[in-house]
Design goal:
four-stranded antiparallel β-sheet; 2 helices; about 30% helix; about 35% strand
Length: about 80
């Protein structure tokens, strides 16, 4: 993990199945600059994404999720 890594929280509007969550976590984790993407079992609408802002912008992460057909927004921005 780089010294410049940060985390962003994303709210996903849809009720995702376990398979959809796993697929989305995997897709994001494969993106350059993203270190991890995780949805908690108790908060299935919230995803925490660890990333290096020198490699990827938070807006690009949101675009990746929206391009998958999901309605989502970053929290705290």
């Amino acid at each position: 993990m780089s010294d410049s890594d940060v985390a962003v929280v994303m709210h996903i509007d849809e009720n995702l199945s376990d398979a959809e969550i796993q697929h989305l976590e995997h897709e994001l984790s494969d993106c350059q600059g993203i270190r991890a993407a995780c949805v908690a079992e108790t908060a299935r609408h919230l995803m925490v994404i660890d990333y290096d802002p020198q490699e990827v912008y938070s807006g690009a992460i949101l675009d990746t999720v929206q391009d998958q057909g999901y309605h989502a927004e970053l929290i705290g921005f």
